[in-house]
Specification:
CATH superfamily of the largest domain: P-loop containing nucleotide triphosphate hydrolases
Number of strands: 10
Keywords: ATP-binding, Nucleotide-binding, Transport
Domain ABC transporter: 8-244
Distance between the termini: 55 Å
Mean pLDDT: 90
Bound molecules: adenosine-5'-triphosphate
CATH architecture of the largest domain: 3-Layer(aba) Sandwich
Number of domains: 2
Low-confidence stretches: 256-263
Pfam families: ABC_tran
Largest sheet: 6 strands, mixed
Shape: globular
CATH topology of the largest domain: Rossmann fold
GO molecular function, one term: ATP hydrolysis activity
Protein name: Phospholipid/cholesterol/gamma-HCH transport system ATP-binding protein
Length: 263
């Protein structure tokens, strides 16, 4: 099989907040058309990684290449164009409460793609249908929907502009296991329907198993293991093993460990 092009390449990414050195030379590559999931404990910097790529957090050092171009070194306009390829499903869906569902979905179509309102509504309804929500939902407000439905709306909003890249931040947080599975299946299908490149962060191993082609584990500011999703149960890496099996004992120090608190 021909080698795939690298869609996103992060090299030597570093970010500290005061004395908290969160990312310490992180490297990760995402090939076009693949779904990579970054796993790691709470507070390890998964969100800081995603926010750095999106331009919400300014890294201290490193490179972020999208289609081979460094967004950190690019002009504002060029960086916007490169990042404009990214559709994002935020944790908690992050919908605009004051806008009806269809306008939430159509937001990027109208604001970014400058599609007229009536056409944007048609596209929004089609996209809602693609995530299993019918037209009646289009005129409701986010507060009138269940958490699972809100996630679907968030997913519809992320894919409405048919982006080449999709980011998913903890896509199953707050959902019951069945709804989480529905969302994972939807993510898998929208990513393959769009032929998109996906980068997700989660600590939900069920989600990892459903949506990842490849898995990367973030620990102490770096990616310490990266490999095919099918290998995560036999990675041979004690850190990955502890995380995947959710064991309290292992090389990953918990902040509550007595030896860490002393002194
Ligand atoms: N804007 C900020 N200012 C100061 N510290 C920050 C900021 N953003 C993140 N941090 C710190 O960076 C570290 C990593 O946070 P981050 O949200 O990336 O973790 P995470 O791996 O996504 O965790 P979780 O799985 O709990 O969401 C934390 O110690 C956090 O307090």
């Amino acid at each position: 099989m021909a080698a795939r092009e690298t869609k996103i390449s992060v090299k030597g990414l570093a970010k500290a907040f005061g004395r908290n050195h969160v990312l310490r030379g992180l490297d990760i590559e995402v090939e076009a058309g693949t779904s990579v999931v970054v796993i790691g404990g709470s507070g390890t910097g998964k969100s800081v990684l995603i926010k750095s790529i999106l331009g919400i957090v300014e890294p201290d050092a490193g490179q972020i290449l999208i289609d081979g171009q460094d967004v950190l070194a690019a002009s504002r306009r060029q960086a916007q164009a490169l990042r404009g390829q990214i559709g994002m499903l935020f944790q908690g869906a992050a919908l605009f409460d004051s806008l009806p569902v269809w306008e939430n979905v159509a937001f990027g179509l109208m604001a970014k793609a400058k599609i007229p309102r009536d056409q944007a509504r048609v596209r929004a309804v089609e996209t809602l249908e693609a995530v299993g929500l019918g037209e009646p939902v289009a005129d409701l407000f986010p507060a009138e929907l269940s958490g699972g439905m809100q996630k679907r709306v968030g997913l519809a909003r992320a894919i409405a502009t048919r982006p080449a890249i999709l980011f998913f931040d903890e896509p199953t947080t707050g959902l019951d296991p069945i709804m989480a599975d529905v969302i994972n299946d939807l993510i898998r299908s929208v990513v393959s329907d769009l032929g998109a490149t996906a980068l997700s962060i989660t600590h939900d191993m069920a989600s990892v198993r459903k949506i990842a082609d490849r898995v990367a584990m973030l620990y102490e500011g770096r990616i310490i293991w990266e490999g095919p999703a099918k290998d995560i149960d036999a990675s041979g890496n004690p850190f990955v093993d502890q995380f995947v099996h959710g064991r309290a004992d292992g090389p990953i120090a918990t902040i509550q460990a007595p030896q860490r608190r002393a002194g």
